[in-house]
Amino acid sequence: MLPDCIVPKANLAARNTLGLPARAEFFASIETREQLAMLARHPDLSRLHHFILGEGSNLVLTGDFPGLVLKMELKGRKLADEDGDYHYVAAAAGENWHAFTQWTLKNGYPGLENLSLIPGTVGAAPVQNIGAYGVEVGDFLYELEAFDCISGEIRRFSAAECQFAYRTSVFKQEGWHLLGRYAILGVVFRLPKHWRPRAGYGDIEARLQERGIRTPTPQQVAETVMGIRREKLPDPVKLPNVGSFFQNPVVAQNLAAALTSAYPDLPAYPQADGNVKLAAGWLIEKAGWKGRNLGPVGMHEAQALVLVNRGGARFADVQNLARAVREAVFARFGIHLEPEPVFL
Ligand code: EPU
């Protein structure tokens, strides 16, 4: 007998922001830690694959999922501690990320302003180390708590143990998110009391200058970030998408040098390890795919890195467009683009 909270054959179409059709064999909303522990050890459910779902804003559903989807709904946020230098702010995994960032700002704990308006949940943020405008969540994460669905224990991960890198973490690298091994329960952020704006990222600096702001407040940085995002990134509620569909490719310095000498306006960002990150959006635009559709999907007209569902798309449509874009970029620049979201 399955617990009452289990929904069989659950429709996931409204639970992924790309709006792809798919069903989960079983689905449950997780509102307490005890409920999660109960489901993980249930004899009829523990042998299944688990997938931990936030708001589905970085997820591509490839078809029906023959396992158990656990929608993380744990709520709560508070100032957990402070010392002379930092606020330690805790939030449960099911909190909406943007609402949480705005709450930190309102309460006088700045630091996360550059990450305003990123869709998704607090618990999903560390999995792919969300980032924007020169800041990544790993820069501020102090520790997190995760439930090990296999052993039934709660484990703490320090920031170092999360192994953050560009758009990835130990949770993504190990494929743990797909196996449903660890369900992130809550995250503690360490936010500096001696706040300094991180406004060095081109667009932000220019916009603050336009407004005549020399020493911005955290709120002003947040407003600027939100303004840029609203212009460039389509709202998934109005036009289904998962943000950047490809990662910005990181290439060896000699390849980057050859490309930037052939294409002087190619945005290129040197990395600490000597490699160079290139702007995938620019490559896709120059390969002719900005604003272009293939069937019911297309690459967005304001940001070529965002694949949008113009209505009724299925996974095969997404696959066809992604393949066409990758082939076009490879044919023109010799660069392989890798997808950014999680495929389930
Ligand atoms: N560009 C173009 N054409 C385009 C898009 C971009 O020429 O169609 C150029 C821009 O002019 C700019 C450069 O490419 O010179 C970079 O563009 P942008 O600042 O828009 O950022 P991005 O590299 O395309 C990354 C993140 C975004 C994040 C922004 C801002 C990845 C995969 N994406 O995009 O994250 O919001 O930087 O920091 O790293 C996401 O992960 O879903 C996401 C939206």
Description:
The chain has 344 residues and is α+β, with helices and mostly antiparallel strands. 26% of the residues lie in helices and 26% in strands. It has helices at 33-41, 97-106, 159-162, 170-173, 176-179, 202-210, 218-232, 253-262, 280-286, 315-333, and strands at 7-11, 23-30, 50-53, 59-60, 65-72, 77-82, 86-92, 131-132, 135-136, 141-148, 154-158, 182-192, 241-244, 250-251, 268-270, 276-278, 293-294, 297-299, 306-309, 342-343. The strands form 6 sheets. It has a 5-stranded antiparallel beta sheet. The protein has a 4-stranded mixed beta sheet with strand order 1-2-5-3. A 4-stranded antiparallel beta sheet has the order 13-19-18-17, covered by helices on one side. A hairpin with a 5-residue loop joins strand 15 and strand 16. Helix 6 crosses helix 7. Uridine-diphosphate-2(N-acetylglucosaminyl) butyric acid binds at residues 132-133, 232-233, 243-244, 247-248, 267, 279, 281-282, 285, 290, 303-305, 340.
Largest sheet: 5 strands, antiparallel
H/E series: EEHEEEEEHEEEEHHHEHHEEHEEHEEEHE
By DSSP, the count of extended strands is 20
Output the strand order for the largest sheet. 6-7-12-10-11
Quaternary state of this entry equals single chain
Number of helices: 10
| Morphology call | globular
Residue stretches low in confidence (pLDDT < 50, at least 5 long) are: none
Topology of helices and strands:
Elements: E1 7-11, E2 23-30, H1 33-41, E3 50-53, E4 59-60, E5 65-72, E6 77-82, E7 86-92, H2 97-106, E8 131-132, E9 135-136, E10 141-148, E11 154-158, H3 159-162, H4 170-173, H5 176-179, E12 182-192, H6 202-210, H7 218-232, E13 241-244, E14 250-251, H8 253-262, E15 268-270, E16 276-278, H9 280-286, E17 293-294, E18 297-299, E19 306-309, H10 315-333, E20 342-343
Parallel strand pairs: 2-5, 3-5, 4-20
Antiparallel strand pairs: 1-2, 6-7, 7-12, 8-9, 10-11, 10-12, 13-19, 14-16, 15-16, 17-18, 18-19
This protein binds uridine-diphosphate-2(N-acetylglucosaminyl) butyric acid.
Uridine-diphosphate-2(N-acetylglucosaminyl) butyric acid (EPU) binds at residues 132-133, 232-233, 243-244, 247-248, 267, 279, 281-282, 285, 290, 303-305, 340.
